[in-house]
Each structure stands twice: as structure tokens, then as C-alpha cells.
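Before relying on records like the one below, remember that each one covers exactly one chain. Contacts with other chains, cofactors or solvent are not represented anywhere in the record.
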Amino acid sequence: MTNQYQDPSLKVFSLTSNPELAHEIADSVGVELGKSSVKRFKDGEVQINIEESVRGCDTFIVQSTSNPVNEHLMELLIMIDALKRASARTINIVMPYYGYARQDRKARSREPITSKLVADLLETAGADRVVSVDLHAAQIQGFFNIPIDHLIAGPTLSDYFLEKGLEDVVIVSPDHGGVTRARQMADRLGAPIAIIDKRRPQPNVAEVMNIVGNIEGKTAILVDDIIDTAGTITLAANAMIENGAKEVYACCTHPVLSGPAIERIENSAIKECVVTNTIKLSDDLGTDKVVRLSVGDLIGESIKRVHEHRSISSLFD
């Protein structure tokens, strides 16, 4: 930690989903991580102890609701309750990855809207604010009746590719829903965009249909918010090589990377898969293709701005 933050009323706590990122965030803010412990009884019940005073403090809890989603969500709800009962002035949830975000609407009859339920649970527990990165659907912000600061990792990912000095770049959205995200990166890189037109017969199964846009002889960068089983992204990469792309990179904010994802990436046409650390990954993934970037400084600066009542949107100007 280089610069000590001068206001002792700002406290950052970590739960168990991503302690490494929490340490980076605390270092960026200039504070020590708050003292707390998470234990489990033999029947699986969670016990949380806050081991320092938080009375009158602005508190920030760092917790991605990644796998195991329900365990991490329950830890978060209990921590919120503990801080509320300990007389914290504000309870701010720093949720780099918002689990259940893909269940944001009723696609079929009698389906739940689980991302709205999660928002209700956080509010009912006592959260005053949420800070998240690249929500799967922008309308999730409207599920909350408390402020939500929506950070974007696009500039971090774009800067990485700018530094590589790639030539003849085209930014590719793996589906129609990601066009806005692709266009934002294309603007930063001064590149055109293309779109994969695909059909999804069932969840986690994607079939590439055709490519809209010129990719022949170009370096393609596939951009998405989440890579889960990597079926969509690897099918798209292979299809682009078959249709004349020179080489293919992929990037995303949230590397869920479940099931066969790593094996698929390793065996695909993808040259590099660039991700951020919103979700904790194993140190040894079994592939050299995955490149990790940190959002610690981005979140740390956002926390300071929230505490000091300064603009966050200006971070992305």
C-alpha cells in the first residue's frame, strides 16, 4: 500500500469470493482491509464476525456472487445485516460480478426474474448502494430502489489491445445483444465492427449461422461480457477463421469459465482470451491462452469517489 487514505471513516471489507481482488482494491484506495471473519458451522450455516468498530463509517463489502453463487450471496446478506446492526453509516456492496444477472426477464411462461429477486434481497438486508462491473443487462439497474454505480471494463480491455499494436482490426459481437459493447470498443480502437448471427437451440448451446460484416484478412477481436462454457465464443472464433479472418482474439469482463470452457478455448482458433479478475480464477488454468487484467484500480478509484461524493461517470470520459 503506497498512499494512506486520510479518512478513517472509510472501511473496505472482503468476504470469501475474491480476496485477492479485495486486497488490490484496498491497496488502490489506500486502506487496510477491514478485520472480519467468515466461518461455517458443521451444518453449513455461515457465521460472520466484524472484528473492529464500524460505527458511523462508510463501509464497502467486496463480494462477487460467482460460483458457488448461493454460498457467496448468503455470506453477503449476512455481512450486510452484521454491519447494519453494528451502526455503520452506509453499507455499500461492491459486486464486481453480479450473479443471476442472466435471469433478467421472463423468456418463457412461469419463469422467475431472479436478478430482480437478488436486488430485493440486498435492499431488504440493508444495502445502501451497489457498485458493479458490466452488468449483463443494463435494465438490472432499474431493479434497485437504491443507487447503483455501473462501472465498465471496456476501457481496460481496449487499452490492452491498443498496446499490442494490432493492425487491420475488426471488433466482433458474438450476438446481436452485444452490439453496443462491441461498438464502444470499436470506437476506442478506431475499428469497424462485425456481428455473429447465431441461433441458440437450448441454454449453453450455440450454433453459429453467419457473419455480418467484413472480416477477411483482418485481426478479429471477439468481445462479450461473460464467457461461461465458452461454446459461443469458440464456435464464433472457428467460424471466423473459416471465413477468412487472419487471427482471432477474444475478451470478456467476467470469466465464469465453467465445465469444458478451458478445454474449448485451448483447442479453438482463439490466440488469446483476455479477461478481468472480477471472478477469481485458479492460478493454474491449464492453458496459456487466458490473459488476466485487473479492475482493482478502477473499483478502488470508484470507492473513493463514492465516499467523497464525486462523479464516477467522468472516469469513462
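The first helix runs from residue 19 to 29.
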